[in-house]
Each structure stands twice: as C-alpha cells, then as structure tokens.
Design a protein that fits this description.
By secondary structure, the chain is mainly α. It has helices spanning 2-9, 12-32, 41-47, 54-59, 63-66, 75-90, 92-98, 102-130, 145-176, 181-192, 194-206, 211-237, 273-289, 299-307, 323-342, 345-354, 366-401, 409-439, and strands at residues 239-246, 248-251, 254-257, 260-266, 357-358.
Amino acid sequence: MFKSLVNAFRVKEIRLKLLFTLLMLVVIRIGCNLPIPGVKADALADIFSGSDFSFINAVTGGSLLNLSVFALNISPYITASIIMQLLTIAIPKLEEMQKDGEDGRKKIASITRYVTIALSLIEGVAMVYGFRNQGIILNYAYMSTARRIFSGTVMVAALTAGSALLMWIGERITEKGVGNGISIVLVINIISRIPADFMSLYQTFIKGQSVLNATIAVLIIAVVIVGVVILTVLLCTGERRIPVQYSKKIQGRRTYGGQSSHIPLKVNTAGVIPVIFAQSLMTFPALIARFFDVDYNTFGGKILLALSSGNWFRISNMKYTVGVIVYIALNIFFAYFYTSITFNPIEIANNMKKSGGFIPGIRPGKPTSDYLTKILNKMIFIGAIGLVIVAIIPIICSGLFNADVSFGGTSLIIIVGVVLETIRQIESQMVVRDYRGFLN
C-alpha cells in the first residue's frame, strides 16, 4: 500500500489529485470545528455524550458535538442515496432512467441532491427546534418571539448550507481527486476521532497503573485492534468466484467466444450498509427519548436501555445484553434486504444466456438463476455473521472493561473498505498511465 502511494506521488497527474483531495479534507476539518454563531455547544455535547451516540459522533467527526456548520455532515446525502436506490426499484420511471446510460445517472444524481437538501432542512429544523429548550441557543429564555424565530432560522440555514457544501466537496473529490469523495469524507471524520479515543483508553487503563498492568493493557488493546483489522480486511476482500464459460461462435472464417470468465461474489455482499441501518434503528429510540423525561425504571425505559449498545456486556447489568439479539437479527435482515435490491440473479442469468455464457454443469436460464440465488443466500449469511462479529468485538471489550470510545467495528469496516478501494483506484490509474506510455 505504501509503495503504491510513493509511486503515485511520482506521477504529476495523480500527485495533483492527491494534493487536491488533501486540501479538501483540510477544509472539511476546519468546517467541523467552526461553530454556528449564537449556540452553546456544551449543551449539545451533554445531550449526545455517552456510548449511545458513539457511532453518530464518529461519522460526524465530532462536528455534531461542537454544533458546527457541518453538524449534519453527509448523513442526509447517504440517506438520500439509499432512498433513491430503493425508489429506483419501486418506480419504473426511475428504473428506466438508471438504465438510460450516463444521462440517466446524471438525472438521478441531480434528484439525489434535491432530496439531500430537503432532508438537511428537515433534520436542521428538528435539531434546532427539538433541542431549543435544552439550552443550545444562548439567551433563548430572554429572547422575543421574533428574535427566537430569526435565530432558529439562521441556525437551520447554516446547518443546511453546511450539509450541501459537504455534498459538493465530496462530488468534487470524486471528480478531481482520488477515490469516492463521500466515502473519503466519512473516513476522515472517523479518523479524526481516533486520537480522542486513544486518549480515553490511556486515561482508563494505562494512566496511574503499574508498569506490569499498563503493559498488559497495551498488549490487550493492540491484540484486539489488530485482530479486528485483520478480520475486517478478510471480510472486505474475500470473494467466491463462480466460473463462466462462453460458447464459441463461427462467423465466416473467424471464431468468436470460447473465453473463460467468472462472476465475483463478495463475502460481504452488502458492505457496511446492514450495520449502519441496524445501529441507526437501535439509536433512534434513544435519540427520541432525549426530547422527553423518560423513567428508565419502567418497562419501556428498560427496553430503551436494552436497545442501547452502551449497556451491553456490562457486568453490573448483563440483563440488558439481550438487546444484542435484536442487533444481530437486524444485521442479517438488512444484509438480505439490501443485497436483494442491488444484485439480481435473474437479470444476470438472462444476460449470460444472451451472450452465450453458462456456468459449467448448470443449464442456462432459470437453473442458472436458481443456482446463483442458492450460492448468494449462503454468502449473505456468512457475510452478515462476519459483520456482526467485527462490530460486536469492540462492543464486548467496551462493555466488559468500561471503555467509552466511538471507534468501533463499524468504523473499522468503513475505513478498511474505503482505503482498499482508494488504493485500487490509484493503482488502476497508474496502470492506465503505463499503458498510455507504452502506446505513445
């Protein structure tokens, strides 16, 4: 990986793209620490503190805690993209648009931007007016009604504009930089929280301990992190290749076809989407509860505690760990659901049949689609279980040893996946350049 980066910096074209990407990331980090005027960031930090919202704090790079102009971050864009993917399956007009080539994809991208702005506006209004009585607006109690409306409108406009700017930066990185811009923005936000997490681990397990205990703590932390990273790499790179043979065609004096190829089925077919969906659904009830005075001694309050990953595997209250069952079930469900709308075995089987391709030992048409569905179902289950293992290991360690960190298995999956994909893109651009040099 490092050799690829060093070689990339030697190429002027790729070097300029990397420098542009780094410059945009600096702009993002400045915006994440630029608070909105007239707000009290400490109040929001108290609301979103704790392990209940560790994932939200990680993907926003701490900008939510600071209530900066990038507080909403790229969450509205990710949500809008997922909504558009679902609508593309449900609405024939959008499905035709997606199959219409580059022009159709540009139209869908344009619609996604408008949906992002709408979601940013809704989330901004919910955040400002939902938490206005929590003390996030300075001198709110002493303001007139007109002043309150004006102050809230300015805050909502700033949050919406910040989300739109981040979306624009992500698209510019994709166009003029290296890698997928939105994914890179997400990764830099997560990485920005790592120093604070390591400082928290230091304060909890190392500071003030004897040399022996501190050494043991460092070794355990290192083993857990390295082990989870290795599992994540295996999960992101593992795939099963289904062989495909193309029949020969004779036209005149020439023979076409006869090549061998394969269909790569990734172990983690749905990527990190199932974990993000599952964690979002598990966090949503706790977020809504912040608007009300909830009695956690009631049955409903205990359910909220069980849904919070911060209460899992705590030795003092192991009964709340039952929420892990819901978490695992949600991951498996969303893995099958998301793969079903992004991977169509029937369409693949039909395309193979039209081009004269077939899987050795399997007849073209419906038998091929049934075979692909059978293999895919097994791969989805294995990938979902792998996702759960990677995501739960840090939660187990955090619960047993009372470590409050935002850097978890989901964050590692995102980082490793994006880094590997970015490195592949850099290497592919270098290969294209070498081919051009050879042809010249």
